[in-house]
Design a protein that fits this description.
single chain; 112 residues; mainly alpha; two-stranded antiparallel ribbon
C-alpha cells in the first residue's frame, strides 16, 4: 500500500487497518517512550494516566491535552507513536508484522 506520508504513524495506521488509531498505555508503551528518549518529567506524568485501557486517538489526545498540556509537539508525536505501536502489538484481530521492510521510493501519481 502507498500512503501520502512515510512517517511512523502512517505505517501504524496501515497496520491498524486504516481505522482511527487505537492506543494503549502499557509496559511496551513505556519501553518505547524510553527508546524515543522522552524526558523523565513526561514519562512520570504518563504513568498517572489510565493503563491497559484502549483509547481512540481522540480520547488519547484529550488526555494529553488535560494532563500534559505543555508537552511539545515532537514529544507528543513520539508518545502517540509509542501508544499506537503498543496497541498494535497487543491486539489480536490480525497477525502482528514482526519485520517491515520499506523502500525509499518517492510517491508517483498514476497516469490518467
Amino acid at each position: 500500500m502507498t500512503t501520502a506520508k512515510k512517517d511512523r504513524l502512517s505505517v501504524v495506521r496501515v497496520l491498524q487497518n486504516e481505522r482511527e488509531l487505537e492506543l494503549i498505555l502499557n509496559q511496551l508503551t513505556y519501553d518505547l517512550v524510553e527508546t524515543f528518549q522522552i524526558p523523565t518529567k513526561w514519562k512520570t506524568a504518563l504513568k498517572l494516566l489510565p493503563e491497559n485501557k484502549v483509547l481512540s486517538e481522540t480520547e488519547f489526545n484529550a488526555l494529553l491535552d488535560t494532563y500534559l498540556p505543555k508537552l511539545g509537539s515532537q514529544q507528543r508525536t513520539r508518545i502517540i507513536e509509542a501508544a499506537a505501536i503498543a496497541f498494535y502489538h497487543q491486539q489480536t484481530d490480525w497477525p502482528v508484522v514482526q519485520t517491515l521492510v520499506c523502500d525509499d521510493a518517492s510517491s508517483v501519481q498514476a497516469p490518467d
